[in-house]
């Protein structure tokens, strides 16, 4: 019959059902929630930067408007109207400083200066942002031209530019019609140069990022509100609060080529992450148009991305740590509850297995606990079904007995067949008993061979000593007597194997003493073989001395037979603990013989398996393992072909009184 495919156990399925939400669905939900929250945070940061840029634009518009109002108000003032025309230049220069302007002069209707002391640059008419070249700035004031000049600094990701410096000036320029003292009309022109105008960007930064200090340094360590405000002429920073190296502002550095193309060339805006000088910023760029509507620069606000990225990692770490902590705290509780489910199920499984083997008295709950637990109710129901099944089985057996009796009484032929069948059954049982007795007898015979070999060897020694020297043979005779006693112990073990419950374990044994006494037992077999011992055990074990002696002799004889050309046997005996923490003694016998391959090593403890052909019974190691297992010990072997074999025996120590 084909073997049914093995499926998932109830325990496995319950564990999967319980752990699936915790270990898979919960992390997935947390991950989606965290990602959604972080995405929303990025949106908020982008919106905030865009809002900051709006504030900066409003401030720039306010500055342009206030500059125009100041110049217009000054031109309409009584002081200006009543002032003599002969010293107008000095008067304008004095009031320029009071108005906070970089230049203040009179122009004709075409935009050329009226004062003869001034040079003759042509200035635009109107109010707004304008660009003045180096010659115009020099004509207005050499100091303005010098202040406007900004050396260009090579910047990663910027567009190639062959210039070494930016000499143009970005100016807030305004003109206002005025009446001169002589009755003529003119234009009063004033302006503020924005190149290297740190007060302009610092004031915007104070409005946008009020948490920054007065020196526009980064905010308190660990904070996030250390944003940057920058004014660009074309793609060159001419005024900024950005200090990438600490104290020096990044004036002269340039915007990335990607931002320049989108804002200045295509006329769009930038609201995204951008590479700023040396790191990534959450950025917002908008173009600045001059009085003619041409895009001449950009206004920028941004905050560094690194603190938020670090905070994101910390958030993930905290969330992951909290989840792991919750899992570690919840799993033991869950497993504790799960055991309450698994134990009754496993008990029912064991009960059904025992019933399948014929034990109709098997029950799951010998003392049913009270409670509404569904699984316990199922176990009680199973026990009731087994009671009913047992009763039905007894009834069927009774009916069957009556039926057999009636058939035997009425049918003589069937009676004879039944008698023959019973005879055959008895013969089969007898054959099985004989086979069992033969197996045990073979084992006993195998074990008797070793003492008889020792007796024979010592008798030969006695013969040689008595023949050559006539010395005292008391030692050998005592050894012979000891081996005869061992034969009696082996016979007793035959009975013990048959009825182990009728025999106790016998006295405790000192493994060190047995190991020390191994050499005389196998001395006659050590032809060209050296026996080395390393004995340090201090505990006694709960095993008969003859059983332990039998195990060591078997292992030693096997090792000797594995070294036909000589070698070394290493015997060690020391105190050791088992894997489950029990105290005991470990004995290891290792040889330098031929070793065994994996296939042979896997079968060495099987009854009747031997590698010596007809010269061995294959029961030695099987009996040794049986003896070790009977005393709750462990026995295993390790072997490498060509390098030898090591047998290890661990026996539990005697229980303290």
Automatic annotation (TrEMBL):
SMART domains: HAMP, HATPase_c, HisKA. Gene3D superfamilies: 1.10.287.130, 6.10.340.10, Histidine kinase-like ATPase, C-terminal domain (3.30.565.10). The chain crosses the membrane at residues 314-335. Residues 443-655 form the Histidine kinase domain. Residues 339-394 form the HAMP domain. Its EC number is 2.7.13.3. It catalyses: ATP + protein L-histidine = ADP + protein N-phospho-L-histidine. Keywords: ATP-binding, Cell membrane, Kinase, Membrane, Nucleotide-binding, Phosphoprotein, Transferase, Transmembrane, Transmembrane helix, Two-component regulatory system. It is found in: Cell membrane. PROSITE patterns: HAMP, HIS_KIN. It is an enzyme of class 2 (transferase). This is histidine kinase. The lineage of its organism: Bacteria, Pseudomonadati, Pseudomonadota, Alphaproteobacteria, Rhodobacterales.
